[in-house]
Amino acid sequence: MPLLAAAAMLLQSAWAVGGGGRARDQVRAGLDTLYAGEFAQAASAFTILAAQDTTDPAPVIFSAGAYIWWAAAKDSDDFESRRIDSLLDVAVRRARAAGENAEALFWLGTALGYRARQEDLHGHAFAAAKDARAMRDAYRQVLAADSLRADCYLGLGLYNYGLARAGAISRFLGKLIGLGSGDAALGMEQMERAARSGDLARVEATWVLASALKREATRKGAERERLIQEARGYVDGLAVRYPANPVFQRFLAHTPEPAP
């Protein structure tokens, strides 16, 4: 599963979502359904929420996220890709129509981050780079207003880590359009911050951090065992909470257990 595939980059509960407290409870229920591995039911629940408020980008993004997790469970980059693209286009339009307040900017960054992932996955590098830069700018504006909104750090962490670990061609393209060169260590710190201090993004951030740690283990021979143990520990915790999620189970099946 590509690192960006798991990045829902969700909004913390202190912010308004749609209809307020009841809508937040419905979002939480939908996310628990998604993480439990019931991807079709989660997508359906978020579709219903999106129809109830046709101005709110959040449930449209969550619906796309459910299909992305479902595709990961199937180990298929193409599963429902057109539906995912369509949902993300709708989410971007809704977020842009909502104005330039912090909440709207967060959802715009979230939708653009998802869309960049899809574009990169299907070979549209230039479009992916543009959306990634716009995502970064949106999140920075949100954090300038309130640095405690820790869920933002998941998207920024993925941005910094992904750029640092990109291939030569991708790094060259990034410099051409102003993405920068990335910083793997900073990206890992930001992902860890979201995993530790985020709210609705905590599960996503924990999963993405574990994936990054496992990737780092292939680069750092002397630290390989420690990084593998740390990655596995994070996903062990997720699998205890959501034992039927096939994505977590596959990770554990393909990650060696620590030596006795």
Q: What is the CATH fold-level name?
A: Serine Threonine Protein Phosphatase 5, Tetratricopeptide repeat
In total, the number of domains comes to: 1
Spans where pLDDT lies below 50 across 5 or more residues: 1-19
Work out the helicity level: over 70%
Q: Could you name the CATH class?
A: Mainly Alpha
Largest sheet: number of strands, sense, barrel closure: none
Shape from CA axes? Answer: globular
Name the average pLDDT. Answer: 86
Strand content of the residues, in percent? Answer: under 5%
Number of helices: 12
What is the total tally of β strands? 0
Order of helices and strands: HHHHHHHHHHHH
CATH architecture: Alpha Horseshoe
The end-to-end span amounts to 28 Å
Q: Can you give a write-up of this model?
A:
The chain has a single domain (3-253), classed as Alpha Horseshoe (Serine Threonine Protein Phosphatase 5, Tetratricopeptide repeat). It is 70% helix and 0% strand. It has helices at 21-35, 39-52, 58-74, 81-97, 102-121, 125-145, 152-164, 168-176, 184-197, 202-217, 224-241, 246-253. Helix 3 (58-74) runs antiparallel to helix 4, helix 5 (102-121) packs antiparallel against helix 6 (125-145) and helix 6 (125-145) crosses helix 7 (152-164). It has twelve helices and no strands. With 260 residues, the protein is mainly α. Mean pLDDT is 86; it is low at 1-19.
